[in-house]
Each structure stands twice: as structure tokens, then as C-alpha cells.
């Protein structure tokens, strides 16, 4: 495989990719924290600590929204580095990303897993999102080739 494309990722794409990656990275936090806060709120109601119980329930609702806002803030800080004309070369060994300011080369062996979403390929090192490739940057044939390669790579890693 040897695919080279030129694209410029949009700020919205960066925000969506990071949000998807961080949600997967922090899946337990997104599920466990609100559950614990709801349980604590119910316990507070049972012991007549109504104000504290209301606070716990409000926190259970607000926590995921606050996390989403924090991700958007993080993405905004990265925009000047990511939203520039970029040349990406994808091979059997890994991928290379070149801009006027930087060059990054990552071998597939560096990643612990790849997750495919309808819009992106998300690359993780351990449990942290490390990179993403927007599918719409590739034409249909390239998407099929890269998607097949990444699926086979992921299957080989988990086998």
C-alpha cells in the first residue's frame, strides 16, 4: 500500500475526532462517575440530606457536559498546528504527515489499537488517542484499501 493525499482538516473535524477518541479513552469515567454521583445523590435523599442530594444529581448531569466542553477547549488549542495544509503518506509500515512546520512519522507497531468510526480512523497508544485520519480525506478506493488494511492489522494484533 502506498497512498498519498493532501488535505486540510477543519476545526470541527479536529473537535469531533478528539471528542470521539477521548470518550473512548475515558469510557469508564463517562459511565462510572455519573452513576456514582446518582447513587450518592439517592443515598443523600435517604438520609434527609436533600440539598447535598440535589447537588450530586446536578453534578451527575453536568460532569459529561463539562468533559465535552474541556475536550472542545483542548481541540481549540491544537487548531493552529492541525488545521493547516497537510500531506499524508500511508504505507504498509505506517504513515507520515507533513506540513510546512512539521513532519511526523508513526509506524503501525507503535499503536496498540485502531478504532473505526463512520468519520475517522482513531489511533491509540495504550488507552490514549494519539492520532486520527479523517476518512473524507481519501477517495472511495483509498478508503476501502486503507480500511481493509487497518481491519486486517487490528485482527492480527488481537489474534
Structural descriptors:
single chain; 55% helix; 4-stranded antiparallel sheet; elongated; 3-stranded antiparallel sheet; 159 residues
Structural commentary:
The chain is 55% helix and 25% strand. With 159 residues, it is α+β, with helices and mostly antiparallel strands. A four-stranded antiparallel beta sheet has the order 1-2-3-4, with no helix packed on it. A three-stranded antiparallel beta sheet has the order 5-6-7. The longest helix is centred in the middle third of the chain and has 33 residues, at 50-82.
Summarize this, please?
The protein is an alpha+beta fold and 159 residues long.
Strand content: 15-25%
Element-level helix/strand string: EHHHEEEEEEH
What is the number of helices? 4
Q: Strand arrangement, largest sheet?
A: 1-2-3-4
Rg is: 20 Å
Detail the topology: elements first, then pairings.
Blueprint lengths: L1 E6 L3 H15 L1 H20 L3 H33 L3 E6 L2 E5 L4 E5 L5 E4 L3 E6 L2 E7 L5 H19 L1
Antiparallel strand pairs: 1-2, 2-3, 3-4, 5-6, 6-7
Amino acid at each position: 500500500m502506498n497512498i498519498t493525499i493532501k488535505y486540510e482538516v477543519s476545526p470541527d473535524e479536529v473537535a469531533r475526532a478528539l471528542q470521539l477518541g477521548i470518550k473512548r479513552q475515558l469510557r469508564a469515567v463517562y459511565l462510572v462517575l455519573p452513576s456514582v454521583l446518582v447513587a450518592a445523590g439517592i443515598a443523600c435523599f435517604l438520609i434527609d440530606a436533600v440539598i447535598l442530594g440535589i447537588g450530586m444529581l446536578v453534578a451527575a448531569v453536568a460532569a459529561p457536559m463539562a468533559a465535552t466542553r474541556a475536550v472542545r477547549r483542548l481541540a481549540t488549542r491544537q487548531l493552529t498546528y492541525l488545521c493547516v495544509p497537510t500531506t499524508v503518506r500511508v504505507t504498509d509500515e505506517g504513515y507520515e504527515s507533513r506540513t510546512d512546520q512539521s513532519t511526523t512519522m508513526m509506524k503501525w507497531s507503535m499503536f496498540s489499537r485502531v478504532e473505526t468510526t463512520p468519520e475517522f480512523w482513531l489511533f491509540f497508544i495504550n488507552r490514549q488517542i494519539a492520532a486520527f485520519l479523517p476518512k473524507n480525506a481519501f477517495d472511495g478506493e483509498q478508503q476501502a484499501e486503507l480500511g481493509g488494511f487497518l481491519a486486517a492489522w487490528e485482527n492480527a494484533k488481537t489474534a
